């Protein structure tokens, strides 16, 4: 079992949190209004004209003009036509450094030929799906189980959202308890009962438009990195149906945007054992990015169930799954009957574990293993973050840059560092207003980065891959510097 990890030194969570606390006390610092206007006119309108034209047409048939929330960019989404290694190319021929990495799974870089060739072979021989068993279903499951100690069994699904839904069903069947407690601010897909407490801790149902409130009767949230808050809720649940599971992102909500102490995960595990709840790790981003043994291998924690996402299909479709200990995974049994009389969760999908996904996932994990991609991508994350920190200091900006290996954060406005305290309801409107303004400035910063040829996730998160070199990162830092030279305090946008 490989024990090399992307994180070379654990970040000082208290220093980062203090920096973020100070950031949201300050006025907004962002790209100057006149510079943003110039970027919109000279870069987006002129150099991205084909994208603009296509998006205008797409808006007539696609709500909002794009199919995925990560695809939005101010002032309009760009149309990307090629992905290769560390680069993306748009329909107008512009080249970009790719730090979105399809939302995190492409540890090898985009579209690696070693995986692509195997997928093409599969398409020539079998096609993408038969609805029947394929040998790589077993090979992929075995590969994951070999690397992640707590995964005795693995069930492939279509997405991380589906895997989170399945994990909850299993937890309730296994424990015969009702309540699910999630980490406030974390994102576990878009299913009804988990559209709770997302983005901002304490937000409860406020971001869950279209979901009746009764759906959340047995969904709760606790404040990130606060074991006392978690235990308080678990203790209370003993008289209210019990706690079936605690569901967390191990590096902190939103891929560690609000980072947690190193010992926090062990503390959560201890509480789960004390109150008879299952511990569910959402490793959609961290599995095979923090380490081949997952974030759980890094933290030395033994979750009962693990949620996987896009990486298990190498970024190809059909990208998610649930793994875990045999005593719990038996609740997903299908096919050959084992004689067990317990009830089983109804989950599945025609395209789950299709041959294309399984072949792509197996060879992706094999290449990550063979090339030491986890460690290499982590080194690039360190190098990028150190460079950003130096630029922040050079230009005396209030920004906060930190990383957990190849998961890098550049917080310029601290939108997701806010929290809602329902004991002070009079403050909620002001918080929602402020986060809305700061979210808009994240979009403006993202546009400035895009015009410099840097694709980020929401203007605040950057994933590095093994396709990067120090020479590339040096060039990226020069581009960031050009943006940082045009930052000013923003009173109100015209």
**Widest sheet, order of strands:** 5-11-10-9-8-6-7
CATH architecture of the largest domain: 3-Layer(aba) Sandwich
Termini Cα gap = 56 Å
How many strands, which pairing sense, and closed or not: the largest β-sheet? 7 strands, mixed
CATH topology of the largest domain: Aspartate Aminotransferase, domain 2
Shape descriptor: globular
Beta-strand segment tally: 16
Total helix count?
Answer: 15
Strand percentage:
5-15%
Low-confidence stretches: none
Looking at how many chains there are and whether they match, the oligomeric state comes to single chain
Give the mean pLDDT: 92
CATH class of the largest domain: Alpha Beta
What this model shows, in words?
The chain has 494 residues and is an alpha/beta fold. The protein has 2 domains: 13-110 and 372-489, Aspartate Aminotransferase, domain 1 (Alpha-Beta Complex); 113-370, Type I PLP-dependent aspartate aminotransferase-like (Major domain) (Aspartate Aminotransferase, domain 2). Helix content is 39%, strand content 14%. Helix 7 (227-237) packs parallel to helix 9 (264-275) and helix 13 runs parallel beside helix 15 (470-484). The termini are far apart. The mean pLDDT is 92.
């Amino acid at each position: 079992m490989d024990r090399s990890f992307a994180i070379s030194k654990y970040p000082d969570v208290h220093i980062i949190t203090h920096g973020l606390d100070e950031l949201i006390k300050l006025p907004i610092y962002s790209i100057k209004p006149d510079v943003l206007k110039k970027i919109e006119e000279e870069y987006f309108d002129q150099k991205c004209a084909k994208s603009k034209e296509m998006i205008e047409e797409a808006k007539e048939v696609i709500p909002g003009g794009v199919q995925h929330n990560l695809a939005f960019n101010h002032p309009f989404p760009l149309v990307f036509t090629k992905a290769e290694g560390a680069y993306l190319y748009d329909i107008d021929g512009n080249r970009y450094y790719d730090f979105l990495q399809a939302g995190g799974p492409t540890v090898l870089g985009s579209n690696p030929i070693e995986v692509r060739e195997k997928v093409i072979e599969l398409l020539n021989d079998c096609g993408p799906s038969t609805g029947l068993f394929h040998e790589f279903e077993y090979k992929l499951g075995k590969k994951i189980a070999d690397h992640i100690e707590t995964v005795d069994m693995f069930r492939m699904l279509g997405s991380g959202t589906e895997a989170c839904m399945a994990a909850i069903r299993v937890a309730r069947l296994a424990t015969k308890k009702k309540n699910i407690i999630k980490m406030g601010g974390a994102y576990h897909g878009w299913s009804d009962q988990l559209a709770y407490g997302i983005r901002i801790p304490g937000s409860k149902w406020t971001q869950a438009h279209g979901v009746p409130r009764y759906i959340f009767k047995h969904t709760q949230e606790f404040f990130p990195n606060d074991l006392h808050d978690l235990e308080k809720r678990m203790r209370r649940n003993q008289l209210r149906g019990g706690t079936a599971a605690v569901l967390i992102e191990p590096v902190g909500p939103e891929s560690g945007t609000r980072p947690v102490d190193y010992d926090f995960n062990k503390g959560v595990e201890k509480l789960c054992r004390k109150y008879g709840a299952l511990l569910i790790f959402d490793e959609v981003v961290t599995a095979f990015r923090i380490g081949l043994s997952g974030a759980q291998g890094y933290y030395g924690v033994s979750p009962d169930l693990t949620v996987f996402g896009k990486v298990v299909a190498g970024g190809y479709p059909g990208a998610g799954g649930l793994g875990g200990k045999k005593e719990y995974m038996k609740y997903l049994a299908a096919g050959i009957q084992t004689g067990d009389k317990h009830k089983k969760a109804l989950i599945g999908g025609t395209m789950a574990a299709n041959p294309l996904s399984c072949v792509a996932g197996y060879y992706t994990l094999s290449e990550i293993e063979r090339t030491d991609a986890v460690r290499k991508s982590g080194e690039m994350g360190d190098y990028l973050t150190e460079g950003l920190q130096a630029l922040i200091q050079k230009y005396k900006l209030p920004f906060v840059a930190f990383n957990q290996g190849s998961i890098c954060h550049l917080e310029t406005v601290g939108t997701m560092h806010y929290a809602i305290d329902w004991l002070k309801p009079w403050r909620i409107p002001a918080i929602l207003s402020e986060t809305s303004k700061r979210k808009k400035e994240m979009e403006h910063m993202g546009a400035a980065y895009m015009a410099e040829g840097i694709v980020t996730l929401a203007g605040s998160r950057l994933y590095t891959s093994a396709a990067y070199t120090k020479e590339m990162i040096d060039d990226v830092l020069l581009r960031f510097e050009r943006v940082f030279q045009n930052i000013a305090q923003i009173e109100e946008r015209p």
